[in-house]
Amino acid sequence: MLVKSIGLAAVNATVSPGILQPWIDEIEQTVAEEGKFSKPAVAYIPLAPPPLLWEYKCKKCRFWVEPNSCTVVEGDISPKAWCAIWLPPEGKPPFSWIRERGIGG
Predict the structure, then answer these.
(1) pLDDT for residue 46 is more than 50
(2) How far apart are CA 10 and CA 71, in angstroms?
(3) How much is the mean pLDDT over the chain?
(4) Which helix (H) or strand (E) is 77 found in, with range?
(5) DSSP code per residue over 35-59
(6) How far apart are CA 57 and CA 78, in angstroms?
C-alpha cells in the first residue's frame, strides 16, 4: 500500500492529473465497507521526517480532520504524523511544498 500511495501521488503530480481519484474511491469504499484502517495496516508513524525533507504530514492530508482525527484511519492522529495512504488535499499537487519552500527553483 505504501509504494502504491507514493507512486500514485508522484504520477498525479507529474504525468496524469486526476489519477488519484480511483485510489481515493478505493480507500473510501474500503472504509465504508470495513471501517477505518488500523494504524499498523497503513504504516502510521507518529512523527514524519523533518520538514526540510518531508512535508507530508497528517495535518496536510486529504483525510485530515481537526484537531486530531482522520476520516480513514482509526484512533487519535497526530498532526505531525504520516501514513502510507497520505494523499494531498483536493486541488493541491503532491510536490507543491517543494515550490512553496523555494527548493529547486
Answers:
(1) yes
(2) 22
(3) 79
(4) none
(5) -SBPTGGGT-BSSPSPTTT----GG
(6) 9
Cα 103 to Cα 68: distance, rounded to the nearest angstrom = 29
Q: How far apart are CA 27 and CA 1, in angstroms?
A: 11
Query: What residue type is assigned to position 5 of the chain?
Result: S
Neighbours of 96 (CB within 10 A): 15
Threshold 0.85, pTM exceeds: no
Burial of 70 (0-12, 13-18, 19+ CB in 10 A): buried
Residue 78's CB is within 10 A of a number of other CB atoms, namely: 15
Q: Count the neighbouring beta carbons within 10 Å of the beta carbon of residue 23.
A: 18
**Cα separation, 86 vs 105, whole angstroms:** 25
- What are the cell numbers at 4? 502504491
For the chain, where are the E strands, in sequence order?
64-65, 69-70
Which residue has cell 494504524? 39
